Amino acid sequence: MSIKRYEQDLPAELRLGPVVAVDTETMGLNLRRDRLCVVQLSDGDGVAHVVRFAPGQYQAPNLARMLADRQVLKLFHFARFDLGVLQTYLGVGVGPVYCTKIASKLARTYTDRHGLKDLCQELLGVDLSKEMQSSDWGVEQLSERQLSYAASDVLHLHRLRAKLDAMLEREGRAALAAACFAFLPERVALDLAGWSDIDPFAH
């Protein structure tokens, strides 16, 4: 594993693959209150690219261009939150999208454990440390432990997708998963418009 660090944006000359794993780190889980601090990416080659944002400095045209590129599939775990954060701070509608949490909920109906740590442990035999999850991501200088944590959140998503795709196909739910992924931008739009705690499909 190697980690490349950037301030505010990716280099213009950086070319990532057709499938890129993406994650974000924020000051909390409230889209209206907690700012974006870090975006990390990997195209599955064992390299994590970590972009740190200072408060109020969210001009990242190279990153935004890649996130909006319809020729690049973006892999997330719990894409709903990350898409909301990226829309709010970078002003970009991300797509197309694959979410390993949604895929897990559709494929692994024998369990209610769909966190990234649980998925990596069961499907890949990888034990992820979540020790730094609740650390201060707004610091000016990220620690090596924070960087390692951020990298681990994207370095395994390609292999997880392959495992989950096989399970979805086996259970006849691949088309249903694809429809859920396609609907994610609309679910995020509902979140940002104030319906985050309301299911409009409920009775």
Secondary structure layout:
Blueprint: E1 2-7, E2 19-26, E3 36-42, E4 47-52, H1 61-68, E5 73-76, H2 79-90, E6 97-99, H3 100-107, H4 116-124, H5 144-155, H6 157-170, H7 174-195
Helix pairs in contact: 2-7, 3-6
Domains, number: 1
Low-confidence spans: pLDDT under 50, at least 5 residues? none
What proportion of the residues is helical, as a percent range?
40-55%
Find the CATH superfamily. Ribonuclease H-like superfamily/Ribonuclease H
Overall structural class, as computed from helix and strand content, comes to: alpha/beta
Rg calc:
16 Å
Count of individual beta strands: 6
Helical segment count: 7
Mean pLDDT: 95
Globular, elongated, flat, extended or rod-shaped: what is the shape? globular
User: Roughly what fraction of the amino acids lie in strands?
Assistant: 15-25%
- CATH class term: Alpha Beta
- CATH-defined fold name: Nucleotidyltransferase, domain 5
User: What oligomeric state best describes the polypeptide chains here?
Assistant: single chain
Distance between termini? 48 Å
Description:
The protein is of the alpha/beta class. 42% of the residues lie in helices and 17% in strands. The chain has seven helices and six strands, in the order E-E-E-E-H-E-H-E-H-H-H-H-H. The termini are far apart.
